[in-house]
Fold:
Amino acid sequence: MSSALPMPFDVRLMNLAATALFSACLVLLTAAGLWWALRNPAFAIVGITVEGDVTHNSAATLRANVAPRLAGNFFTVNLASAREAFEAVPWVRRAVVRREFPNRLRVRLEEQQAVALWGSDSEARLLNSFGEVFEANVGDVEPGELPRLAGPDDQSTQVLAMYRMLKPMFEPLDLAIAELALTARGSWQLEMDNGAAVELGRGTPEEVTTRTRRFVQTLNQVTSRYSRRPEALVSADLRHGDGYAVRLRGVTTTADAVKR
Structure:
């Protein structure tokens, strides 16, 4: 029974050298291919396809604003930077950017949905449907169609949630909330569309809405005593423990809340 002879040392050395040389050539060829791809004009970004919400920004305007901020070609363009460039455009809330071989980008946009003005009259800021504050041209919306909400920026979500809870309560009275503010001391204040000012006071959302519901459910009874309608309301103070104070056009009174 014969056994294989060991391979001579010089043969093994030549095999190792050939393998190393082949590997080096492969690396060089790969690097050359990558260099060619990176430098080839065929892979330069030549177009951006814009999809999704473009109500406040046309696709052409978006491309014109973002294209100068893009660096690199199809392979080297930084998609995160491209996304940030799109999201820096007014009214754009979110952008998803992906490559489209061989030389294009495709972006899908989600625009801000304004539900309220935010802050003082001098501020060009809005609130979106997620309770996020954003800056935009307020002239792009009809101010009369949006309520004005105010409060600390880090509590904008809470302010919007409170507005959504309070808004339907006043609808049976044919009154609408024009402004809702959360003060720095945590007190809630309302201004109705007829100009009436309502102090809701402090407390948890449940406490504030309970006081407001009691007020709304009994206001008709209070105003009717003086031959008035709820639209005659000038001001109200709900910070009393067992009732509320109201002021009507031509009448000033303090009325206990009627029990449910």
The chain has three domains: 9-39, 42-111, 114-256. The mean pLDDT is 86. The longest helix spans residues 9-39.
